[in-house]
Amino acid sequence: MNAPAIISSALKVLAVWEALKGHTLTGLSNTELAAATGQSAPNVSRALATLVEGGYVTRYESGRYAHSVKTLQIAQAHLTHMQQFRTRAAELDQRISAGAN
Q1: Rounded to an integer, what distance in angstroms lies between the CA atom of residue 58 and that of residue 65?
Q2: Can you tell me the distance from the alpha carbon of 20 to that of 28, in angstroms, rounded to the nearest whole number?
Q3: Are 66 and 20 contacting, i.e. CB atoms less than 8 angstroms apart?
Q4: Is 17 a residue whose pLDDT tops 60?
């Protein structure tokens, strides 16, 4: 079976999006993102424009970029989902320990 084609430009955009992790409050500049990703400043600018247009990144008044509320909502949804599974697993463990059916 052949692997699906990869969109290399999408990978570049995602690399910029990923490089923003841990900088939600301070953001990163285009120059910092170029250094972090190994991409050229123009490529980073295009990636940021794409991410801002999609609502995944926000541009602060300082000109720095950070994950948007939309991205943070995705992260929060994942956290909530995982907490629900941990709760269900803990309940099952308790029932098993108690010998319940």
Answers
A1: 6
A2: 7
A3: yes
A4: yes
